[in-house]
Amino acid sequence: MGRMSPQELKNAKKLISAMPLNQLMELKEIYGLNWSNISSPTTFGKDFKAEYDNGSFPNLSSHGVKINGNNHQRYERIR
Q1: Is residue 1 part of a domain?
Q2: How many structural domains comprise the chain?
Q3: How far is CA 43 from CA 1, 20, 29, 34, in A?
Q4: CA-CA distance, 34 to 31, in Å (whole number)?
Q5: Where are the alpha helices (DSSP H) in the chain?
Q6: Which tens digit of pLDDT belongs to each residue from 15-66?
Q7: Is 2 helix (H, G, I), strand (E, B) or coil?
Q8: How far apart (Å, rounded) are the C-alpha atoms in residues 23 and 76?
C-alpha cells in the first residue's frame, strides 16, 4: 500500500497528465510552483516513489537518479 493521501494521489495524477511526453523530469519540475507547498520534499519523494512502485502511476516511467547527480528520482510520462 502506498503512503500518499487520496488527495495527494489525485493531484499527482493530474500533474503527471500535464507533463510533456518523453521528457525526464524530477518531482520539483513536475510539481512546479506547487513544490513550495511540500513540507518535507525528501519524505514526499519517498512516498511518491513508493506509490510508483505500487503501480499507482501506470503512465509514468522511472529512470532512477542521475549518475553523479543530486539523488533526485527522474520520471517520464510515457502515455
Answers
A1: no
A2: 1
A3: 16, 25, 17, 16
A4: 5
A5: 6-17, 27-31, 41-53
A6: 999 999 999 999 999 999 999 999 999 999 999 999 999 999 999 999 998 8
A7: coil
A8: 5
